[in-house]
Amino acid sequence: MDSFSQPVSQAADAKPLSFPPDFRWGASTASYQIEGAVNADGRGPCVWDTFTAEGRIMDGSSAAVACDHYHRYPEDIALMKAAGFDSYRFSIAWPRILPTGTGAVETRGLDFYDRLVDSLLEAGITPMACLYHWDLPQPLEDAGGWQGREIVGPFADYARIVTARLADRVKTWMMLNEPNVVAIFGYGVGEHAPGHKLGEQGILRALHHQNLAQGAALRAIAAEHSGLTLGTVLNLQPAVPDSDRQEDVAATARWDAVWNRVTLDGLMRGQIPALLADRMADFVLPGDEEAIRYPIDLLGINYYSRMTMKHEEGRPFDVGWGEAQCRRWTGMAWPVQPEGLYDLLTEFRTDYGNPAVFIAENGCAYDDVVTPDGQIHDAERVLYYREHLESVAQALADGCNVKGYLCWSLLDNFEWAFGLSKRFGIVRVDYDTMERTPKDSYRFLAEVVRTGRL
């Protein structure tokens, strides 16, 4: 059974938890969630534009404007600089560069990222670019999307085009963001774009073809550039059983294989999880396991909570959600379990050879209240960050090779199928005026960055 959520404890006479001087601090965002300007400068439609047009966003909002970062990025960079952040992971919108996913390049899209990168460097902030954060060009989805290996070549070509323009200044490149979420919620159960309900086979096909595309892009970039830090970003969550019943334990192992190991072990070990090998045999071809393995330089980890699972027939892999054991929940109804982050980091140390990793996303949504003087005193978010940073600091003290921590997210933004109603930012965005207001959590993180300790 899962334990109750506890912050990392210290003895009364213990020194404050601290971070090394070269530890990287910053924030992460995603192009579709903040940029807006969906019809600007030749950008083509993506699957989330279609999903939104179909009326499938819970609060009825859209990302047509979002945070208007496309036009207001200097203001957002200034906020990061004022907080002392030295790193920023952003994603590049595939349909801004290749409006149909392939073919003619839209140079105005590349021009935008030129401006963004130059402004970051001028502010002393290291740009960390992610090539794919879910905004798949709609024409590629119409041709099969992540269900077939025909997408592998276009993704590698897109990687070549973007790095040819930006790799002289952007030295850290992440290939994908959360391929498991794309596969499960986009192709398996239909809760995210493109909204397909293809069950187990849809999930596994989407996972495998993202793995193949990632491997092809890594090799394409490495063949044309030297001196880059290459990696990817995975959403990893320790899976724990709802009970000690054999069927719940077995279901949890299956879910761990799907959620964590297809992507992680494919990349790190060139292995298809044994529990899933038979189910994937129809589309895993000879040579694929070697093609998906790549010795990356840096792995981004997105962590939000553990996953408590149970046997439930009729759902993909006969796995359902159990009852998480914790004392607090976020505004997304996600359990607050900072100790799971420590467990995850120590697993990399003991089971994966202690590779270089960084926290690419960690954060929480709450129903923020604006006080009469215009401030946001988000004490729950401050506590969330403090507890998770305690886990990171303790992991560092115990020898884990953690290079940095990026919060999710810099700004309140378009939270996918939930729309604009869920606020993850350390900076509030007034969606009527676009005014940015730093929250208490912003000031808390800025102080941790300034002092290097909790």
From TrEMBL:
Keywords: Carbohydrate metabolism, Cellulose degradation, Glycosidase, Hydrolase, Plasmid, Polysaccharide degradation
Protein's name in the database: Beta-glucosidase
Keyword match Hydrolase: yes
Documented EC number(s): 3.2.1.21
One Pfam family linked to the record: Glyco_hydro_1
Alphabetical list of InterPro entries matching this protein: GH (IPR017853), GH_1_N_CS (IPR033132), Glyco_hydro_1 (IPR001360), Glyco_hydro_1_beta-glucosidase (IPR017736)
Positions with a binding annotation for substrate: Q33, H133, N177, Y304, W408, E415, W416
Family listed: Belongs to the glycosyl hydrolase 1 family.
Catalysed reaction, written as an equation: Hydrolysis of terminal, non-reducing beta-D-glucosyl residues with release of beta-D-glucose
Active site: E178, E361
GO process terms (BP): cellulose catabolic process
GO cellular component, one term: cytosol
Record-level Gene Ontology MF annotations: beta-glucosidase activity
